[in-house]
Amino acid sequence: MARISGHFPAFSATTFLFLLLVVTHLRQCSGGGHDYHDALRKSILFFEGQRSGKLPPDQRVRWRRDSALHDGATAGVDLRGGYYDAGDNVKFGFPMAFTITMLSWSIIDFGRNMGGELGNAIKAVKWGTNYLLKATAKDGLVYVQVGDPLSDHNCWERPEDMDTSRMAYKIDANHPGSDVAGETAAALAAASIVFRSRDPAYSRLLLNRAVKVFEFADRHRGAYSSSLHYAVCPFYCDVNGYQDELLWGAAWLHKASRRREYREYIVKNEVVLRAGDTINEFGWDNKHAGINVLLSKEVLMGKADDLESFRINADGFICSVLPGFSHSQVQYSPGGLIFKAGGSNMQHVTSLSFLLLAYSNYLSHANHAVPCGDTAASPALLKRLARRQVDYILGDNPLRMSYMVGYGSHYPQRIHHRGSSLPSVASHPAHISCKEGSRYYLSPNPNPNILVGAVVGGPNSSDSFPDSRPFFQESEPTTYINAPLVGLLAYFSAHP
Ligand SMILES: *[C@@H]1O[C@H](CO)[C@@H](O)[C@H](O)[C@H]1NC(C)=O
Asked: Where is the secretion signal located (predicted)?
């Protein structure tokens, strides 16, 4: 110390310039060149563009207008509100609930990193939970979808113009759906944690409802794809079974309520409900990796020895995701992006990266690393991998393009999204009917309305991206791509 202070050099302009260059270079090499906070703000703003129902006065996405104001009327109930899942105008309850669960988890773990965006993130959750409360208002049934997907997908219409069937689909004791009901219970329970200190009355309402919906899901077991096959398949068909959502719902209720019955349920049903299955997946259909990571937090904190097997599963999941390990089961594109076949790849990228980051934080606090074969994966390694995925999304990729609309200078222009690709109501007030929309769908022109913050399905397995509406697997955004990304961006904006 003394030597340095004794010989501190004169701070010349040249030295300063040199230091500036070194610092800038390091920032770029470490991926710190991204404006994560700007991306965070946009990733949350996206949810406003997906809103259904009557828009509030503080709506910032101004090219959108009120839509679907009679949802639920055919069933004599109020089902206005909620979110369109993607580039169409159906309200699919299963992915919507998963979206709310993940937005809530983003806030629970990373809300303190959101700065001024926290309020907007909470509003995004509440727009979803207000709808889920309507969908679960009657005991013993849950409305799980509004809109006939076949007629909706057959049209290219703005949500504001939509004139296809708004049939409301429900599950009940005779037509069970433990998958969608389990996920809905998870969403309500997770959101109750978000509101616990901010709005205790609302939080209690959410938690009490979660308890009831979970009870219904567990008592009347079955897959909603069997009960409502024609309406939900192949769109959000539960391929993976409903067992994982029962454990997932119980895990969130355990976290939110701290009642012993949920912990006992988890321990008792762990084997029956196959907690360890297909552990390297996490998405609206498959919750296994999420259950294991979520429950591991307490194990790592030394508070739940009876849940130790979940930590072992979570470790196994981590090893299966890390590239270059013998256990690795997840593929990467040549440019370094996690890649899973089957369309809308970015949902896997953001949800798996979220789990890497969340788990790395739990490990850090416990001073642990993950043993993978004869190496150990440190929390820092998991963070680097998660950051690498986020940076790829934001532009560090072979095409040098951002896959988030409105972020950076080069981003998707022709996303598969009805509202974004058709002229707005402000610029074209006249109705545009089902088939009149086709010419906008087929047009080579960029979309007129920029759906800021939308992250699309992304490049194919060789890092190519067509930027074309008909390539929906690549060019369609979804709410469940963004929900985990909100947490990732929050963390990296606070730890650039
Ligand atoms: C990815 O897209 C590019 C360009 O459209 C195409 O040439 C390539 O074959 C595609 N790769 C795969 C694996 O589909």
From this structure: 1-31
pLDDT attached to residue 121: 98
Both structure tokens of 117: 């965006």
- How many Å lie between the centroid of ligand 1 and the Cα of residue 412? 17
How far apart are the CA of 395 and the centre of ligand 1, in A?
19
CA-proximal residue: ligand 1, atom 3 (nearest): 464
Q: DSSP 3-state helix, strand, coil percentages of the chain (rounded to 5)?
A: 50, 5, 45
Contact present, 49 and 64 (Cβ < 8 Å):
yes
pLDDT of the residue at 27: 40
Using the mean position of ligand 1's atoms as its centre, give its distance from the Cα of residue 205 in Å.
49
Structural fold of domain 29-494: Glycosyltransferase (1.50.10)
The closest-lying atom of ligand 1 relative to the alpha carbon of residue 461 is 13
Return the domain boundaries, the chain.
29-494
Testing ligand 1's pocket by substitution, the residue of 339, 345, 462, 467 carrying the most ligand atoms inside 8 A of its CB is 462
User: Residues of 138-159 as b/e, b for ≥16 C-beta within 10 angstroms?
Assistant: eeebbbbbbbbbebbbebbbbb
Phi/psi at 346 (nearest 5 deg)? -60, -25
Judged against a pLDDT cut of 50, whether residue 141 lies above it is answered with yes
Closest ligand 1 atom, CA of 466? 5
Reported pTM: 0.93
**Cα torsion angle, 181, 187, 193, 196, sign:** negative
Q: Of all atoms in ligand 1, which is nearest to the CA of residue 463?
A: 1
CA-CA distances (angstroms) from residue 57 to 44, 54, 66, 409, 463?
17, 10, 11, 30, 41
Rg (CA), the chain: 23
Q: Shortest CA distance to 487 belongs to which of 43, 151, 26?
A: 43
* Helix axes of 243-257 and 200-219: crossing angle, nearest 10 degrees: 150
Q: What amino acid is encoded at 68 in this protein? A: A
What is the reported pLDDT for 18?
37
Pocket-testing residue among 331, 332, 464, ligand 1, by greatest number of atoms within 8 A of Cβ: 464
Residue type, 339: F
The whole-number pLDDT of residue 326 equals 65
Residue 372: pLDDT above 70?
yes
Which residue lies with its CA nearest to atom 2 of ligand 1?
Answer: 464
Which amino acids bring their CB within 6 angstroms of ligand 1? 460-462, 464, 466
Stretch 280-299: mean pLDDT: 95
Query: What are the backbone dihedrals phi and psi of residue 376, each rounded to the nearest 5 degrees, phi first?
Result: -125, 130
Residues carrying an active site annotation = 416, 467, 476
Instruction: Centre a 10 Å sphere on the Cβ of residue 134 and count the other Cβ atoms it contains.
Output: 19
